[in-house]
């Protein structure tokens, strides 16, 4: 069976998926999975060269390079998107870890605004373009559920994003809104954040996680596509961390 014939009758056949942050990592893998399930994809990202390569690989309908943390850029982007679209997946943004004594308050202020404002901007400017029953999917995390040194900001975001998800699901219904809460995912961003400790972290997780392996972008992409296709799901947070929050190493 060819990729084309498989996609023609996939779960997302005939649908259009927008992936914000779709040039690498979880976003790119979600776009690949959506294409394999028959969807057309529209990609955005900050790095024009990386975005161009991703769009060429997937045969994307279009690709737009901009900083997703710029609310005006989000507005301008969705103004150019022809409705209807079916789903929007948002993976842009990075976590912020810092001890209080070392915290840069300017960076902290930006971090506290970044994810909530991104969610609000996408919800405001995309909702009118998404067909009823379509989905907005956002990325959060599980790491901030356990208090710890250096986790103040990310813990606040963990709570805030769940609350935003539930409220937005009510306000922009019948468009659905869900949050994917990931633990460690083996992506280029994780490698950048951990530097020369990345292999140590991978080994630690393989030894301690109940699933016996490290969660990868394909795992998150599979969940994202499920949340797109299961139209009974809205306003909820879905964990994908291999059991990381239940073990001491998580």
Please give a handful of descriptors for the protein shown.
250 residues; alpha/beta; Rossmann fold; 7-stranded parallel β-sheet; 7 strands; 45% helix; 18% strand
Summarize the structure in words.
β1, α2 and β2 (40-45) form a beta-alpha-beta unit. A seven-stranded parallel beta sheet has the order 3-2-1-4-5-6-7, with helices on both faces. 45% of the residues lie in helices and 18% in strands. It is α/β, with parallel strands linked by helices and 250 residues long. The chain contains nine helices and seven strands. It has a single domain (3-246), classed as Rossmann fold, CATH 3.40.50.720. It is globular and about 45 Å long.
List the topology elements.
Blueprint: H1 3-8, E1 16-20, H2 25-36, E2 40-45, H3 48-58, E3 62-65, H4 71-80, E4 85-90, H5 105-126, E5 130-141, H6 152-171, E6 176-182, H7 188-194, H8 198-208, H9 217-229, E7 237-240
Parallel strand pairs: 1-2, 1-4, 2-3, 4-5, 5-6, 6-7
How far apart the termini lie comes to 41 Å
Estimated radius of gyration: 18 Å
Estimate the strand proportion: 15-25%
The portion of residues assigned to helices is: 40-55%
Structural class designation = alpha/beta
Identify the CATH class: Alpha Beta
Write down the domain tally.
1
Placed side by side, the strands forming the largest sheet appear as: 3-2-1-4-5-6-7
- Number of strand segments: 7
The helix tally amounts to 9
